[in-house]
Design goal:
Four copies of one chain form a homotetramer. With 337 residues, chain A is of the alpha/beta class. Chain A is built from twelve helices and 15 strands. Strand 14 of chain A pairs antiparallel with strand 14 of chain C, so a sheet runs across the interface.
C-alpha cells in the first residue's frame, strides 16, 4: 500500500521533529515537501531527510504529490492553513493550540466541515502509552465511576521570554495540554474552572503579564473534579503524571527513570533522574500520532483528536484566565454560551 | 527515671489504643487510671492493661498518682477537660480537633496559658516517619523554596453516619489533619482557602449536610500553594500521601504496601494492597507521639504540636466551609480577624 | 478461652524478645516463668514483664502453671530440653538450629514422637508476610511449575567472633534460614548441594575457620534449582529477598524501606535505607509465630514448622560444608543415607 | 565531517536491524552496501534503506566506498570475514559470539593484530544505560570492593530448534552475554566456573543435547563471585537484571515496564508487563554501539569491546559445558592454558 505523502508547513523544532518521524520512523507515511518562512530551515530539513522545498504554503498544500498537510507553524497562522487545506480537500495535522482566538477556531471548523476533510490536532500526550493506559482503565470501567483526577505537568525550565510572548500565557500554552488530558481521561466536558497561580520562577515572566506556577481545579459534566498543577521549572526533570480516582479504584501514570538502576549504601538509596527533555519522554507518543494519522487518512478511521478536541481546551484556558483575574470560579459557558 | 504516669479520659477506639500504647509500648510512660462515661469500657480497659478506674474525670485529673492527662473524649468536651487540667497544673495530651467552636478554643488557650501547663495536640501524622521526612527535607532546604504542596488523604470507607453528625463535617473532621500537615510541611500559615466538593460516596452523607469528596486549594503566607484532596471511600485502602515541590527539587511520601511481594505473569505484574485500617498505617506515629510527650513532660521539651497548632486548622476548616457555601476563595482573616 | 501459659528457657537477646511478645503482644499467650543460667537476666526479664523466675529448667518445664515451653538457650542444649519437654508432655517452641549434631536431633525426634508432644521450630522467616506470599503464590500454582529460586540473605554486620565460635559456621548458623526457605518455597526436598565461599569481610572470621561470603546452588527433588547468596556485612542494611521463577511467571519479595519518602533534585533521586536491625524487619514474623503456636497448642493445629523441618536444613548445611571443603557438589544422601 | 560508510554482511534479523540503525538513527554512520547469501534479503534491505547490493562479501569488504564492515552473518563465518577485513585494512564490527572454535578465534586475532585494524564485538548489553550505570558505579568505587554479582537473563520464549542447532548450546549462545557482563561489571577475569542446568521448557531442546534452564557460579581473579541464571522461557517478558554487591553498598539494574501505569483496586495493585521483545529493551544499546564504533573508526578511540573481550566469554562457555558434563567446578585455564 502506498505511503501517505506528507508536506510539512513550518520546520522549527517541532516541525523538524515531525519531518524526521514521518520520513524515518513512521510506517505508512513519507515526507515529500517542506516549507518554512526561514528558507534555510526548509532547505536543511529537506536536504537531511530527502524531500523538496515547496515554493509557498499554497504550492505545498495544493501539490499533487502531497496527500496530507502537517501544520507546525506559529499558532496565529494555524487557521489560515487549516482553511487552505480544507479548500484543497487535504487531510490536515495541526499542532496545538489550534488558535488563541475562539472566533478564528470557529472559522476553521466551519471551513473543515464544509469540505469534510479529516483533521487531527497535535495533542501528543493522549498517545503516551502510560497516560493512554490511565484513560483506557477509566474508559473500561476498571475504577468504577471516575471521581477525582490529578494532573501534574511541570517543565524542566522555562522557555525563552520571546517564546512566551504571543503564547497566550501559561494557561493557553502549557496547561492546555492538561485541559485536553482532563477531557480525555474523564471522557466528560468541563463546566467550571477555578485557577490560581503566581510568579515563583522568574520575575520577568510576571512582568510579561504571565504566570509560571499555577493550580487549576475543574468540575466536569459528570461531576468529576480535576486538579492540575503546573510549574515552568522542575529542576529534577520533565514531570508528567496523571492519576484518576474512582469508586472502584485508582490508576496513575508515573515518570519513567532515565535508567532503572538503583544504588544503596549506608547513607540510603539513590536512583537516576527522570527525563529532562520533552522529546526523551514523548517521542513514542509523537510517533503514535502518525500511526493514527495514517489510519485516518488511508482507512477513514475516526480522528483521534478532533477539531472539537482542539476547541474545548481553548475555552477552558480562557475561563482559567478569567478565573485568575477575577478571583472566582468561572463557568465555561460564560466563555462560549 | 520514673515513668510519666498517665490517666486516660475516654477509652473508646482511640482512647483504648492510647491506653495500650502508654502501658505496653511507649518507653517512659505508664497507665495508671482510666475514665469513660461508659463504665464497662473503663473497666475492661483497666482490667486488660492493669490500671484503676477513676471515679470521675475530676478525680482522675486531680489524682496524686496521675502526672499527666490524655483527653480522648468526644470533641465537645475537650476544652472543659483542658481547662480542668490547666487548673490542676497537669500536662495534657488532647485528641484532634481541639473543638469545633473557636471561642471555646480561645477559652482553653487562655486557661492553659494562665497556669502554663504543657499541652500536646494529637495530630499524629506529623510523627509518621515518611511524612516527617518530607517536612524535614523542606525544613532543611533540600528542595529550596517550597512552591507547591499536594496532600492526598482518603479513607477506605466512610464512618457510621452517627459519627459524622457532630463531627463538624468533612473539613473539620477529616481535612483538618491535612490543614495541619500543610502548615507542618510548609512551615507557613494559610492566608486564603478555596474549597469545592460533592457527595459521590453516599447520598445519606449529603442529606446530613456533609460532603464525602472534596478538593481544597490554599495559599500560604510564604506564597506556597497547597492542594488537598479527600475522599471518604478509597476502596483500595487508606491512601495517605504528601508531596512538596520546590525551587530545588521535590520530596514525597508514598503509601507502604501490605507486603513487598510482586508477581509477574504474561498478563502483567501484580502486588499487594496498601494498608486498609488506619492503625496499620499510623501505629508508629501514635507511638512516637508518646515519646515526644514524655520528653515534653519530663524534660520540658517544647510541645511538638501546640495549642496554636490546634487552633489554626480549625480556622482553615471554617474558611473551607464558607468557601464551599459561598463558591469563592475565603481569606482566613475573614474567620479570625 | 484461657491463655497458653508459656515458660521461656534462656532470656538472652532472642529469648527476651520472645518473652516480651508472649506477654505484651501475642493474643492467647502469656508469660508465667523464665529461666536463664545468668540469674540477673532472668530476674530483670521477669521483673519487666511480670513473671516469676524458675529455680531450674526442670522446675520450669514441669511446673503446673506452665502449659508450654519456649527453648531459647544455646544450641547445644536444645535437644536436652526438647527431651525434657517431651517427658513432661509439654508442647515446645525451639529456636533454630535444632542442633549441630544429627544424632542428637534424631534422639530429640525419637523422644518427641514417643510422647507425641507438639513442637514448633523457630524458623521465623516463614511467617514474614512477604516471603509467605511468595510461597503461597508458588503453592497455589500461580507461577506454574517452580523452576528456579533465588534467595539473598545478608546481615548488616557480622556478629562478635565469640558468637561465631560454636555456631557451626555460616552454613549452619546463617544459611540454615535460607535452606529452610528453599524447602518452604519450593515444597520440595533438596537432593544436591554445591557451596562456594570466601572471607571478604573480616580475616578473623577466616582464622576461626569460618566464611563470611557464600554462594550455594541446590537441586530439589522436583528439579527446581535454588541459588542462595549470603554476606555477613551488607552496609546498606539487612537485605532479605526471595524470588521464585516458574513456568507461568515469577514472584518475589523485596526489602521494605525505612520510609516511603523519595527526594528528587537535578542530581537524581534518593530514598531511605532499608531496615538495619533484624527485629525492625522481622518482628511481625516473630509475632505470627506465636499466633500459630497458640493455635497448635490450643486447637491441635498442625505444627507450621515440624521437627523434620528442623532436621532437613541441618543435613543441607552439613552437605554445604562438605561441598565447600571438597570442592564438588554433594548429595544430601551422602550425609544421611 | 564525513559519515563512516558501512557495509553490512548478513542482513537477517540482526543484520537488518543494524542496517536500519546505521542509515536512519546513528549519527556519523551511513549504509552504503549490503550482502546476504539470500539475495532477496539483500535486495529488500538495500531497497528499503537506500543502499546497493554487493556482488560478494569480498566485493563489499574491498569496495572503495566502504569505510568499515559489519559482520552479521552466521557464527561459523565470522572469522573468515574478520580475516578478510583485516587484509583489506577495514575496521570491523562483529556480532557475538566471535566463533565457537577457540583456534579459529586465535587465527582471527592474529590476522587483526597483523594489520592493526580496529575491531568491536557486538556485546550490546554493555551499552544499555542501566547495566552501564551498574558497571560505572562499581568502576568508580561507589560500592567499594565488588564481592558478589548476580545476573539474571531470561528470554521470553525459546528460539526455533533449527536456530539452536549450531548455536554451541545455551552457554555459548545465550549465557555468553552474561559471561561478558560479569567481566564488564567486575573488571576482572574469570578463573573458575561451576555450571548446572536442566531441560524444563521443551524436551526437544534436551533431545538436541542442549539445556534451557541453567545456573552458573564463577570466581573472578579479584575474588568476586558471580551467579548467573538463565531460562529460555520467562513468560512474563525479557528479564534482564544485573546486581553488584560490594563492601560499601550495592547497585542493581532492573527491568523497565512497558508503561509506568499502576492500578489499585480492593484486590491489590497491578501494573504492566516488562518488554517482551529484545529489541524493545535493547534498541538504545544497539544504537550506542554505533556511536562508539564511529568514534573508534573516526577518532581512533579505543575499542569498547575488544577481540580479547570476544575471546574470554568463549573460554568461560567451554568451561561451563565441561563443568556441566563432568559435574565439577572447572578452571578456565583447563580450557586455555
Amino acid at each position: 500500500m502506498n505511503d501517505v505523502r506528507v508536506g510539512v508547513l513550518g520546520v522549527g523544532r517541532i516541525g523538524r521533529m515531525h519531518a524526521e518521524l514521518i520520513q524515518r520512523r513512521a510506517d505508512g507515511a513519507s515526507l515529500v515537501a517542506v516549507y518554512d518562512v526561514f528558507s534555510e530551515s526548509a532547505q536543511s530539513v529537506a536536504a537531511e531527510f530527502g524531500a523538496r522545498v515547496a515554493a509557498s504554503p499554497d504550492e505545498l498544500i495544493n501539490a499533487t504529490d502531497v496527500d496530507a498537510v502537517a501544520v507546525c507553524t506559529p499558532t496565529d497562522t494555524h487557521i489560515d492553513f487549516l482553511v487552505a487545506a480544507a479548500q484543497a480537500g487535504k487531510p490536515a495535522f495541526i499542532e496545538k493550540p489550534l488558535s488563541l482566538d475562539l472566533s478564528e477556531v470557529d472559522r476553521g471548523i466551519a471551513a473543515a466541515e464544509a469540505t469534510g476533510i479529516a483533521v487531527q490536532i497535535g495533542f501528543n500526550r493522549r498517545f503516551d502509552p502510560s497516560h493512554k493506559s490511565v484513560r483506557d482503565t477509566v474508559a473500561n470501567g476498571e475504577i468504577g465511576d471516575v471521581q477525582m483526577v490529578r494532573i501534574t505537568s511541570r517543565d524542566p525550565a522555562p522557555p525563552p521570554l520571546s517564546y512566551l510572548d504571543g503564547s497566550g500565557g501559561i494557561f493557553l500554552d502549557m496547561t492546555i495540554h492538561d485541559f485536553d488530558m482532563a477531557r480525555y481521561v474523564t471522557g466528560s466536558e468541563v463546566v467550571e474552572v477555578y485557577a490560581t497561580g503566581a510568579v515563583m520562577v522568574d520575575p520577568a515572566i510576571g512582568e510579561a503579564g504571565d504566570l509560571d506556577t499555577v493550580v487549576v481545579v475543574m468540575t466536569h459534566e459528570n461531576g468529576a473534579i480535576t486538579t492540575i498543577d503546573n510549574s515552568r521549572q522542575a529542576v529534577y526533570g520533565y514531570d508528567q503524571r496523571v492519576e484518576a480516582f474512582g469508586s472502584a479504584g485508582i490508576v496513575a501514570s508515573d515518570n519513567p527513570g532515565v535508567t532503572t538502576t538503583t544504588r544503596r549504601t549506608a547513607a540510603g538509596s539513590a536512583g537516576s533522574t527522570i527525563p529532562y527533555f520533552f522529546l526523551d519522554r514523548y517521542i513514542p507518543s509523537y510517533l503514535a500520532e502518525w500511526t493514527d494519522f495514517v489510519a485516518m487518512v488511508r482507512n477513514g478511521a475516526p480522528s483521534p483528536v478532533t477539531l472539537h478536541d482542539g476547541r474545548a481546551p481553548l475555552v477552558i484556558g480562557l475561563a482559567a484566565w478569567r478565573s485568575f483575574h477575577e478571583g472566582r470560579p468561572v463557568k465555561t459557558k460564560e466563555i462560549t454560551p
